[in-house]
Design a protein that fits this description.
- It contains no helices and 13 strands.
- With 209 residues, the chain is mainly beta.
- Strands 3, 5, 7, 9, 10, 11 and 13 form a 7-stranded antiparallel sheet that branches. Strands 4-8-6-12 form a 4-stranded antiparallel beta barrel. The protein has a two-stranded antiparallel sheet with strand order 1-2.
Length: 209
């Protein structure tokens, strides 16, 4: 993969500190070791991405039986590769919850259908000039064939109305390279056992190449 460079014009011309000991009067061009040079850091979008997106859903009630809460699908014929960028999960309770409820888990999935297909207009763009996403988000009781499990986010458990201040962020380890969904592939957020007093906050972020 080619390296990406950012050219910085009109950067501040601060003095450059150098190390070494002068033992004779130098003449001509000298080699010196440069340390501590200040550099400005700029965040730029990966130029390979056509767009980057996020879908977020707040305060979704738990379901007692096993339930697929949210799916991200790269539909057949999209002509794109979806690069999973991360998930953000938190929960709170509005009543007593038992210790039998299970974690919100992320899985690879296939054969996704049902639930509520969200409109492209409900999906946030990282930049408003980007095209509408091809990635499809479904919510509610979505039907899916589960693949391998990817990650787990524990629920908040308690005996009274309360909440945890923590948001579980699921990033992709950079050493592993890109986590992709090819055409026809999906991922799903799912619990095996739930409680109606749980409220889930769920977000999925991705890019499209």
């Amino acid at each position: 993969m080619p390296e990406m460079w950012v050219k910085v014009e009109n950067a501040p011309s601060d003095p450059v500190p150098v190390t070494g000991t002068v033992t004779t009067n130098p003449s001509g061009t000298q080699n010196v070791a440069v340390t501590g040079q200040p550099l400005s850091i700029y965040t730029v979008q990966n130029p390979a991405l056509d767009g980057a997106y996020v879908y977020s859903q707040a305060e979704v009630a738990g379901v007692v039986a096993a339930n697929n809460f949210m799916t991200l699908t790269n539909p057949v014929g999209s002509g794109k590769i979806i690069v999973f960028a991360g998930a953000f999960i938190s929960s709170f309770i509005v009543g007593d919850t038992g210790a039998t409820i299970t974690s919100m888990r992320g899985y690879r999935a296939s054969a996704v259908s049902g639930g509520t297909l969200q409109a492209a207009s409900s999906i946030g763009k990282f930049q408003t000039s980007q095209p509408d996403p091809v990635g499809q988000i479904r919510t509610g009781s979505v039907t899916a064939t589960l693949g391998t499990a990817l990650f787990n986010s524990p629920p908040y458990i308690g005996a009274a109305k309360s909440s945890s201040p923590f948001v579980h962020q699921v990033p992709i380890p950079p050493q592993g390279g890109l986590f992709t969904l090819m055409e026809g592939e999906s991922m799903v957020l799912r619990t095996e056992v739930g409680d109606v007093d749980t409220r889930w906050n769920l977000s999925l972020a991705w890019g499209e190449i």
